[in-house]
Each structure stands twice: as C-alpha cells, then as structure tokens.
Amino acid sequence: MALSDARKKGYAFGLTDGRLVFRTPYGQPESFSTEVNGVPVEEVHATLFSRQSWVVLMVDLVTACSMYEGSYDDSGYMVWRTPEVPYRSLHGTQLNIGLNGELVAQPVAEDRRFVVGNINSTVQISVPLTAEGGYRKSFVLGDLFEIYVFHLYLEQILADDDRVETRVRFQRTLSTPLLPHPVFTENQTVADELSFTVYLGDVPEDMELVAVHLNGDEFTVQYMNTRSHNITKVVYPNNTLGYILKVPFDDPVVLLQFSDDAVLHYELNINYTLTILPENEPFYHLTSVMAFIDASPPAFDAVCSKSGISFSRDHRPYDSLWEISIGSDLLTPELAAKHGYIMSNDSQSLQLMVPLFSHGYKYNGVTLDGFYGTFKILMRDHETSEVESSTIKSCPFSTNELIRRLTVVSDMSLAIPSGGLPARFNLVDRLCGARETNGTRALFSFPINTCGTTIELSMGNVTYQNEIFYSGSSRVHSDAVERFEADAAGIGGIIHTARPISDMQSLTIKPTATLQTTPASPAVSRMHDDHPATRYIKVPSVQKLASVLKRKRTRIQAK
Hints:
Layout: H1 3-8, E1 12-16, E2 19-23, E3 32-36, E4 39-52, E5 55-66, E6 71-73, E7 77-83, E8 91-99, E9 104-105, H2 106-111, E10 115-119, E11 122-128, E12 135-141, E13 143-159, E14 165-175, E15 179-180, E16 184-187, E17 195-204, E18 207-214, E19 217-220, H3 221-224, E20 230-235, E21 240-248, E22 255-258, E23 263-276, E24 281-294, E25 301-305, E26 308-314, E27 322-326, E28 329-330, H4 333-339, E29 342-345, E30 349-355, E31 362-367, E32 370-381, E33 387-397, E34 402-404, E35 407-411, E36 422-426, E37 436-438, E38 441-445, E39 454-458, E40 461-472, E41 481-488, E42 491-497, E43 523-526, E44 535-538, E45 552-558
Parallel strand pairs: 34-43, 42-44
Antiparallel strand pairs: 1-2, 3-4, 4-5, 6-7, 7-11, 8-9, 8-13, 10-11, 12-13, 13-14, 13-15, 16-17, 17-21, 18-19, 18-23, 20-21, 22-23, 23-24, 25-26, 26-30, 27-28, 27-32, 29-30, 31-32, 32-33, 34-35, 35-38, 36-40, 37-38, 39-40, 40-45, 41-42, 43-44
C-alpha cells in the first residue's frame, strides 16, 4: 500500500539522518499475536520499498511487543515481563528503565529499588510500590482499599552481528488490583502516667483525620488541643501519617468502674473520622482501650522520732474514694488543730506529725527503760464509712518518770537521803508491790479500783489517788513521802517530800489539805487514754529531815 494509505491506518514512518522510525498502534489487522517463552507478544512485520531511478531499496521492519499486563507481587512489587530478544538475528546489549517517560540506566534503576532479572530468556522488571513517580489512590468500599498506577518506560538496545543497533521502547501502564489498606491502632498507655495514649498508624497521605468521638462525644481535631486531651500528627518518609491521642484518666469522657477486687477500670471507646482527599469521602475506624489500676486504699509511711510519730503519703488521683480518720473522727484541719497534730496537705502529699501523748495514742510495754506508743490511722470507704485498711505504727520512747493513769514509774532518788537504798516498795495496800525495781526507781501498774486507790470528784474532775511506801535498809534512817498533786484541771506533778512516822500509823492516809505544789521543772512524759488529759511535772525533793526514824511513802494522783 502507499504510504498515504498506511498513514490513514495509523502507521507512521519517519526518516532522519541515520535513522528509520516505524510506529504502529496495537491491534492492527496486519499484526498477529503469539507467545514467546510464555509471554504474550503482538508482532508486526512490514517491508519498506524505496525506489530511486532504477534502484529499489527494501527494508524489512519487524517489531514484537510484549502484551503482558503486569501482575502484583505480594512482597510489594508490580511485575512486568518481556522476551529478552524478540528477534533471532539480534542480541541484547543494554536496558534502560524509568517511569513517566524518564529513562535511567539499569544500575541507577536498581539503586532505586527496581529489581531487574532474566528468567528463561525473559526480562522481568519489578517496580516497588514506593517508587518515586508512581500514583496511589485510596478508596472506601466498606473497608479501606488502595491502588497503585505506574507508567512504565523501558528501552531495549539490541545489536546484530554488524553492531547495527535496534532500540525497542515500551510504554506500559501497570495497575495493581484493589489492595486492602488497614489502618491500625496501638494502645501505648502506661497506667502510672494516669493517661490514655493511643496511636493511630499507617494512615495514607491522601487522607486526613477530621474528628474523634470519645465515648460518644464528638471532638473536631481542630479544637482538640485546647482541651485536656490532644492529638499530635506524625509524618513518615514512606508517605504515611500517624496520630497520637492522649486523654487523661480523670477526663469526664472516660468511663470509670470500681470492681469488687479493688481494681479501677478505665475505658475509652474511640471512633476516628478520616476523609479521603479531595473527594472528602469519610472513613471510620473504631477501637476501644482499657486500663487497670490497683485501687487499694492509700498507705502511709511512718517514721519514729523522739517527739512523736510522723506519717506521710503521696496523693493519687483516686484517693478520694477513701476518707482518713483517727478512731471514729474524720481527719480534718480542725481536728488536727484540736488535738495538737501538725498537718500539711498540698497538691502533692499529706504530712501528719502526731506529738507523743496526743489524742489517739495507745501505750504498752512499760518498763523502767521506757514504753511503746502506738498510733493508728484508719482508711474508710467514702460512701459506707467501713474501715478498709489501716496504718499502725509503734515506736519506743524513753522517760525518767511517767504516770499513765495508775501505771507509774517513779524515781525515788529525789526523796531518799544520799546513800540510801530502799528495800521494799508497796502501795496503800501492802500486797500491791512494785512490778519492777532498779535501785531507786520502781514500776507500779494496777487497776484504778484496787490497791487502796481512792477516787475524788471535784469541779467536774475525777482524781485517782494512791501512795507509794518504801522501807529503807538497816543503814538508812530517813523516810520520805512521794505524792502526785494537781495544780489545776489537767495539770499535776509527782512531788517528793518527807513525813514523820507518827503520820503513818494508818495505811489509808489521806492527803493533807495544805499540800503545796512546787513550781514546775523539767516536764515528765504524759500519756492519754480515755480519761481527762494530765501533764506531769517533776519537782525537786524538799529538805531532808535529820536522823529521825521514819517510814517512807509516795502519794499518787492521776486525773
């Protein structure tokens, strides 16, 4: 056919210096299809006649193009194949590969993660989905999907035995099938931080997060960072996005449950709203996260000191589930001031210093060397007031003299002449002797209604009174009496004095009406139980009475 007719059918011929170009559309009636090494090929064979005068030049033009549409490799590559040498008289020398009409040498393409191989005389080219120059698009079909499109450009350089080059160039559009693209969430919450941290990852770059529903409440991303919860956007080199959501446990949107096994359950149901750009087609991703915290009642750290016991604890967000009490009384600043406690309560911690002998102490283990003081702090359920736990601290304390109701440690050295050693101690009832002695010191402990104790009621006060009697060795010829006398309501002291034996005919001697309390000197330890508080004062002995045979005694009063 004439060139004009060939052009009408879509064929094209071009002649330049040293080059003859032949182009043909696919699917021409004159072409035929076949397979070469399993690769579908469309082949066209044309002969060009050129006559100059009596000389006729014939040029055979043969082209064979791979019709392989490409396939998706699950490893993340789009694969295309073509026969290595489409013409028997030629042999391959070089490949140039690229996208979107740009060609680069094979080594450069391989540096860009293209994979070029030769399998059974077939050239196989694998294009990574992340190749620069590709096109990606997200779709919502119930779930999230994506496709990748590549405009592959390939040049084969062939040569014959005379080193005449033939260049065959292919342009193919390769498209992956619809591929699922699931986004994911990761619960990165650390319970000790008291905040939910949830990561939304692998979001395609043609999508954006526009809103978040937290337990049903909608918050637009634009305004989220103005509240206690916030969202941070993260951009990755692989053209994906991530979002970090933070919501404190104490945020009103967080669901909170308290289980019977003393565990706090925090729950956050999240519905992410994303849109595909530019169509703004919505896509929703739902997830739920939970956090568990041991909600045992708070415990105090306790430290002993010479002056009392110090309690401290750090605040926890859920400590409001319990109330702190001393006995049946709720611990408040008013209660602390009333009983002389030193309390400091700020946003970080609670500090409570309980001086010795304050209200709430219990005492035991009283010996000549000292005693133990015990203080208890109770943790009660905020709603039921039931005691759920307690912090109990016992500390050793030492003292020279003390009176705990009618438990007495008395230092008799102040009333005994120098060099004297008592042989025996007893109370008004001679059968009530000292439980423990050590030189001039004696320990008595007895019920208030025994051992000859008398009780006096005066001006709303109750006074328990007894006396300590002691007899000296054969070398001691001085007697003394020791009594406890009250100066005013709640204040008193152990008073050492001396009495003639003529005053001691009866074992139930009553206190004289003119006894004088000596001014206070160093304070003796005091203890409180269920009776009115008493402060005990140690008073120096009076003048020794000269060599008169006497019997010694100490009078005790406790309020």
